[in-house]
Automatic annotation (TrEMBL), chains A, B, C, D:
This is Chorismate synthase. NADP(+) binds at residues 47, 52. The gene is aroC. NCBIfam families: aroC, PRK05382.1. Its cofactor is FMNH2. It comes from Ruthenibacterium lactatiformans.
Length: 373, 373, 373, 373
């Protein structure tokens, strides 16, 4: 069940880049959970390709709900949504079908599927599969919002340029999350946004691409989610985040920054804040022993530069089994971070909703916000 | 099933640090797979506490097999192994039971289990649960060895001191893996080993602790393992690795080093090597599109400094719901990296065995090495 | 994941009777498995409503494959197929929406989904959901055929009329299976077919309905499939068969006929047949200790009479919470056995394919028939 | 994961009849659920062999809890319990190890495990594995009792002799369930008990064995449990019940008695009873559309006669691959129904607890009885 993830709620994705459609099925939704198509469209819009910093392949990405929704709310049975592929130009791929694209899954798909894969446009490996992830994820993002949980992601680094850090002040932090969710290009400092955009355009002009780091903060999460060991918050979210094509690293809190610290520097002291237990610092990024502690959840992923570049590359002709060169044509993203951030939000929302369901049962989806005090 | 992981093979762990025993159940082993108790003992020995750089609590860690083994081989039905807890001194914990230890799961366990958890020694959250992980993992490590797959981990960084890097020469690399697996303190450069040990002892002398980075290399893995998206090699291994207490980040290949690169620098060119397809560089750490490509698998985890330190710390008395100070007594590790590396090896072995089973079926466990040419 | 079943292969179904579409997703197919759309159409045709013995709601039931098939074969990634609902007359239901139909899921759906269910036409509980089961199942039925495994079901009893029993002669038995699979109304004795048809029509004329027993035989199955306890052949197939609406009992071999026997009468003696081990009798229906023994698999389900009848019935008005009477209108089947038999075939095929995958790995789907000698 | 079952709670069993121990692991228990060792012992006692109607192998069956229980209650982490095998006489089996016992799993185990199975005493296929099922099941039986759910099973038929039927009067029915749970030999009519016992002894005297039917009634179950299709109450319980060695059929409500009825006879009319919806009859055995309707759950299994008989039987020498005769020695049950009924209770309790957990979340395990009005 490699295309399915989740325990209390599940997400299954299907489709190929140049097949008839891509889509997703969600199970485990509580009956009555609102399915807000307007909010879904807004989330899809964040993922859409726009301007010179994205591919020129644009899809309407109209989402059709086939099942599981009645009168605007989840019925509680399997919810399937489908997005037709309309703007496919498979011809772009045929001439290079046997020339393995470096950094892509062409070779590994061959080794796994023995030639039966739909190789056009990356097939099932395509970033296009993240469209149904965002559509389905929007239901969970919205659901968590109604519980007072806010999620947002910024481009913490892009093309070597750092964004400003998140604020340490809770009220300001919440404003930053809201601003990111309203923004087209999700950075905290508008000046850095311009610098990043210029760097992406410069790379694109050279037929090259750039990578970076996506940092996500979640506010309002109750303590007690997750499990020791295999079902930890980190394990659950990392498995989802590593499913984003191009993500090659995931860290929580200080992450790799922990390596050089001593325990006395790294530990987060507990303190009472009124009747709530909080930590004086948040080095652990909201997770202790695999379980949420009520502090902001902080995680980062590294997104490698898009492997589709227009420069001439050395590769192998898999049919002829000999060395060859490749120059990729077609329509590609010089950078995917600004589109991928809503994918990251969506997977985090899904993963947290699954953990909530495991902890609180289906009933958590009903009613109003948690009382955390 | 938060204590269970795996699809074609499963691993379930149970037990509490100061309960009667800890143990593990493995399902999905092919009938006839050898269970080498001598090899298991050797792996357990690597995990044992030794010298001034470890806790003074030592356990015999004798593994008793309750089921699933007959005449030295797996029967194919559930294999359960148990390790009795013999050297427990719960008294060390009672006086501070309500004083939440910073960096530990005391608070989150309270929030998750509502006071019903066995809090003594961390209970189910204890690093002691990694003992059955190593015992069970030894079966998979050995099994992969018979297929020509070698796994080894070194302390790439400890207490701020870097080890030498792995060799780029395949023959030399294999020697390095063998040496690491024969070593007590797994580093590539003996001089760095001495420096690390001294740094750990110095931290211990101050009642403090240190962290670092564990880097694992796997040789001999066939191409084609793993799945696009949720079942990727990275997702599968990361979920396992994040279940190691103290791991706060996981990366593959260049990992976070990808952030600043361009696509033209980051892509691994394909080349023919005889009849095999290889990559000229291995920035992707042996994984493309979530699937193994036959190159060495390279991954790193960051291990935060042990949270149990002897310095006075600020915390909260959870019963009285007020601020307090805590000075931890008991027996604790000033560094766990040298013990944790075999836990990492074990979980990687288990995860890869699971992926092999998904790809090749149970039959992969039988017969001899893959012919990769 | 209540809408998903399976381990090595999975089947997920979605949709509501009067929603936009019904469909299914299959995962775990080996790359290259043929997807024979012509065979699929034939199987769908067996399930279609026909004549006076079926509902007058007829659907074209055109199956559209959205993903997972390329050049006529499975890619190995999620295969989703969709059947649009075209002939819906929801008006038939609105006036009785709150009058619970006896024998149906109207009441239990209310209690489970709290009013959020799509109640039109039974919604997700509708027999219409068996359409995608047959479509998806056809892939497995065909696959097993290529391995030499034949599956067929007859109406062993319908409206109180018994069909002739299966032949004890293997060659004749195989002919009977082929004949059943070619027949519209699957009985072994044509005279009984006429009697059953007349009995169904007579019941229909009175606004009533009939039930019966479906008996399935599977030939050519290798020994060694299934597991002791929870994964037994019986457990796996029963869980699937009880998901057919109206099935209230499942038995294997002599089934409930075992109750009055002694061990000496019930045991199947083993005998050598050339180099193969066979049993002299087949009271156990091809399964010992939960595992297939290579003899014909024999199972029976009881299908209760269709609860939708046109007679006046006593019931409850769920909105008003008071007793009421109900006279069902709309279009309904006076008997579903002749349509359900291909649903039973399909679920048996799916269940066996899953067990084969667990035993042989994905690779079993490739190549040719097993050599059972 | 063939040795594991369940979604919200899981049950894993391990062990072989003549290995060191048998045991079980339970996950998903809510923290704080009482683990009543006295009640567990009582349930184990019901399963113990007693008198001439059972095997002379008796085991102390002392249950040792290794993990997951602290201060008399579940911690919420994996609960493992172990029962040592003490009274093993493997010598009884060695001489016939290659003579396949008819009706047993000797042959199929060979075909599945290729000779690596522990064949002594049936190994993992042994009825001895039901001991940990009862031990673990007692936790769920007790838990359901505290919610007002009562479960009991009687020998509805044994050796061809029918017990009296359950009463249709609710108050009397509850008394009957209590009496069954207090009885050693679970029948409703003491005269039939004597007749059955005599018939078992008569069969035993001839070296033969008998079978029968176990009927279970569950009172107090809330409406709304289970799922349409694959997760139906019937699917969930049937998969568990078919894992009992010797069960060859499962039916709900009228079961196979539905075959000859018309819809107008079979349908259960809904009626108001105060503010509750009930059915006038209970032909569907408490389940509509796969979901509990609040009426008594009624199910029956058929238990084939114990295959271990002392008469000379025809069989095959699997090593020599030739026909042979077999006379079984050792210690065996001439009838298992009176011991198996508590196994059936235990599995039903486990299955219902799992369905409750899926519907209500873990929280259902806490607090008191449901308010069903």
């Amino acid at each position: 069940m490699s295309d399915t993830y989740g325990k209390s709620v599940t997400l299954t994705i299907f489709g190929e880049s140049h097949g008839p459609a891509v889509g997703a099925t969600v199970t485990g939704l509580a009956p009555g959970v609102p399915v807000d198509m307007e909010f879904m469209r807004g989330q899809m819009e964040k993922r859409r390709a726009k301007g010179k910093i994205s591919t020129s392949r644009t899809e309407a990405d109209a989402v059709r709900v086939l099942s599981g929704v009645y009168r605007g709310a989840a019925t509680g049975t399997a919810l399937t949504l489908v997005i037709e592929n309309t703007n496919t130009r498979s011809g772009d791929y045929t001439k290079t079908e046997e020339l393995l694209r470096p950094g892509h899954a062409d070779y590994t798909a061959h080794m796994k599927y023995g030639g039966h894969q739909d190789a056009r446009g990356g097939g099932h490996f395509s970033g296009r599969l993240t469209a149904p992830v965002v559509a389905a994820g929007s239901i969970f993002t919205k659901l968590l919002q109604t519980k007072g949980v806010a999620i947002a992601t910024h481009l913490a680094q892009c093309a070597g340029i750092d964004d400003a850090p998140f604020s340490g002040d809770p009220a300001r932090l919440k404003e930053q999350l809201d601003a990111l969710n309203a923004a087209d290009f999700a950075v905290l400092d508008p000046l850095r946004a311009r610098a990043m955009t210029q760097a992406i355009e410069a790379a694109a002009a050279e037929g090259d691409s750039v990578g970076g780091i996506l940092e996500t903060v979640v506010l309002g999460l109750p303590a007690g989610l997750g499990e020791p060991f295999f079902g930890s918050v980190e394990s659950t979210l990392a498995a989802l985040l590593f499913s984003i094509p191009a993500v090659k690293g995931v860290e929580f809190g200080l992450g790799f920054g922990f390596a050089g610290l001593t325990g006395s520097r790294a530990n987060d002291a507990f303190r009472m804040q009124g009747t709530r237990v909080v930590t004086a610092t948040n080095h652990n990024g909201g997770v202790n022993g695999g379980i949420s502690n009520g502090m902001p959840l902080v995680l980062r992923t590294v997104v490698k530069p898009t492997p589709s570049i227009y420069k001439v590359q050395q590769t192998v002709d898999f049919a002829a089994k000999r060395n060859a060169t490749l120059q990729i044509s077609g329509r590609h993203d010089p950078c995917i971070l600004h589109r991928a951030r809503v994918v990251q939000d969506s997977l985090v929302a899904f993963g947290l909703a699954d953990l909530c369901g495991q902890h609180f049962g289906t009933a958590w989806q009903e009613g109003t916000a948690w009382n955390m005090d």
